[in-house]
């Protein structure tokens, strides 16, 4: 084996390891919303192994996801090669994962920000998209507590 090939294989190995251990959910979907990639974050929070979800339709596995809404959100990503974003203020989560952080235990579910990115093939066509799921529960819980404190303070000022 050549030194260059060994170097390429080593780089590929650590890149795959990084995809599995990064603290961000990574899901690759094709145009029929079949799951092509499911990383360790998704496995950990869903309880589903990559082998259990690969080549299965997202909506069959997660019927709580509004198919029409999500499909409309993904259309410009596939067709126009544009990114799309789903923020927790608009929709607290897409995947109903339990909140697992002891410091933010005030929330039952994980709040999520999601980026939908086109994955361009070698032909320039977008046949797959990548979902990047970020856990923003700490941010959401803090903002909700701040808003609640502001309401309480305003009520107190109105009484005095």
Automatic annotation (TrEMBL):
Q: Which domain of life is it from?
A: Bacteria
Query: What range(s) does the PAS domain occupy?
Result: 13-79
Gene3D superfamilies according to UniProt = PAS domain (3.30.450.20)
Q: Name one Pfam family in it.
A: PAS_4
The protein depicted here goes by the name PAS domain-containing protein
Q: Which organism is it from?
A: Bowmanella denitrificans
């Amino acid at each position: 084996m050549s030194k260059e090939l060994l170097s390429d294989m080593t780089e590929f190995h650590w890149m795959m390891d990084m995809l599995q251990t990064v603290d961000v959910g990574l899901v690759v979907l094709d145009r029929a919303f079949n799951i092509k990639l499911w990383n360790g974050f998704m496995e950990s929070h869903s309880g589903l192994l990559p082998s259990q979800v690969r080549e299965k339709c997202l909506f069959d596995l997660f019927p709580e996801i509004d198919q029409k809404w999500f499909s409309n959100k993904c259309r410009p990503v596939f067709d126009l090669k544009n990114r799309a974003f789903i923020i927790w203020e608009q929709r607290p989560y897409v995947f109903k994962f339990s909140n697992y952080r002891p410091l933010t235990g005030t929330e039952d579910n994980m709040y999520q920000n999601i980026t939908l990115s086109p994955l361009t093939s070698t032909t320039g066509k977008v046949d797959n998209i990548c979902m990047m799921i970020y856990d923003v529960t700490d941010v959401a819980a803090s903002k909700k507590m701040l808003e609640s404190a502001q309401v309480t303070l305003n009520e107190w000022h109105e009484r005095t």
